[in-house]
């Protein structure tokens, strides 16, 4: 290993050492007495989302594989949080970073990548991102990170302070330290893979429930086992749902899957702000709707226990989309049916 690689790994490790763990927030819902609900707040990472963990893992993985060396340009196909977090780590170790993204990507995100010293390379439509990243990497002898392929294997699923280990450690002093279920949506599928493998490795009596938005094949792939399924539409819930079964998506680690209507995701996202004064992204709404569905089932059966899900990112980036009622009405239609359901379950909040 070169001195440069050694130093790059050490820098990322030192950064992790200086960083605090993310909070596990407990929701107070009197209507669901006996069922404790928790949110693991991944929006509190320095780059604002759960992709901070992924980016750190992908960089360490590629460095230790010898794929990133001094001066290697790192390339990623991402219009979202992954590009922002990877730009942060690229700057930390002093390598150039290029994010391949659709031309119509929100200006705020482009600015964030550029803020961390990254460059944005634009393609006309999302389906061209992967190929463009491969070509770009070949042209400059760079390294294509390929999150949708490597997310599931870059993270140490047995421990090393991964998100699953952190959740179970933080639950230790709760009334129900082993949650009945952990709920998570899938983008790369990396987080569900880590959660599911860790639960089984430790032998916890916890069900891993994955939630999927409307325009995504993950749910059908999980049900049928057919990885060749494809759809033409992209997901309307940012960060989750894919039109094809990306390699990183591991259906066999998931115990149960649920499809969540996009309107329900946004209704749950808005409802969380009333409950705890926090703006979050729409994928957190998908997670929350899934968790509340499970809570209602448990309540009906007279069961007690704990449920855990994630705040994937904050809501500040979505003020002119999910937080704009006109945008929601135009893009997703009427969501009042879901808002009414939330009121019903949760006693008027
Ligand atoms: C990536 C992402 C997810 C899904 O996480 P994966 O580990 O990639 O499956 C959920 N929400 C947001 C906002 C994301 O960026």
Spell out the key features of this protein:
Rossmann fold; about 350 residues; cysteine synthase activity; pyridoxal phosphate binding; cytoplasm; lyase; EC 4.4.1.1; four-stranded parallel beta sheet; alpha/beta; globular; binds pyridoxal-5'-phosphate
What is the tally of helical segments? 13
When the domains are counted, the total is 2
Strand order of the largest sheet: 1-2-10-7-8-9
Order of helices and strands: HEEHEHEHEHEHHEHEHEHHEHH
The whole-angstrom Rg is 20 Å
Label the structural class: alpha/beta
Secondary-structure arrangement, i.e. CATH architecture of the largest domain: 3-Layer(aba) Sandwich
Average pLDDT confidence is 96
Main sheet characteristics: 6 strands, mixed
Give the CATH class of the largest domain. Alpha Beta
C-alpha end-to-end distance? 57 Å
CATH topology of the largest domain, what is it called? Rossmann fold
Low-confidence segments: none
- Each distinct ligand: pyridoxal-5'-phosphate
As a percent range, the share of strand residues is 5-15%
Number of strands: 10
